[in-house]
């Protein structure tokens, strides 16, 4: 009995050690594959300088693609950004879907700030470089004018 217990304990420890090594090896392989993907992404351009032509191209492509999300032909905006980036690539501009999404957010933010500033009294009128294109895109969109309504309500309460 005294000899069997240490042998069983040693076998048990070896099996635990093997399974732990297998798990760690699998985890390291998975992690190193992620690094390879990250290294491949590092070869793509990190930043893209948006000029007037590329921004107008983006707005034109977005105008054509925006209804596809509303009609559910494109399931998510993530797919939409990918499609827009592919269209811009066909036009000769290497831009990532994330850069396209960030540009859209930036344009939306600047348009909202312009609308908000121009609705307030006592402030100088500001303009947005792509005001005409963005006003055609957004029109009377709820999320643009809802911000103004909330500001008006908070001013009334004071």
UniProtKB/TrEMBL annotation:
It holds the Pfam family Myb_DNA-bind_4. Transmembrane segments: none annotated. Residues 1-21 form the signal peptide. The keyword Signal applies. Keywords: Signal. PANTHER family: HEAT SHOCK 70 KDA PROTEIN 14, MYB_SANT-LIKE DNA-BINDING DOMAIN-CONTAINING PROTEIN. This is Myb/SANT-like DNA-binding domain-containing protein. It comes from Trachymyrmex cornetzi.
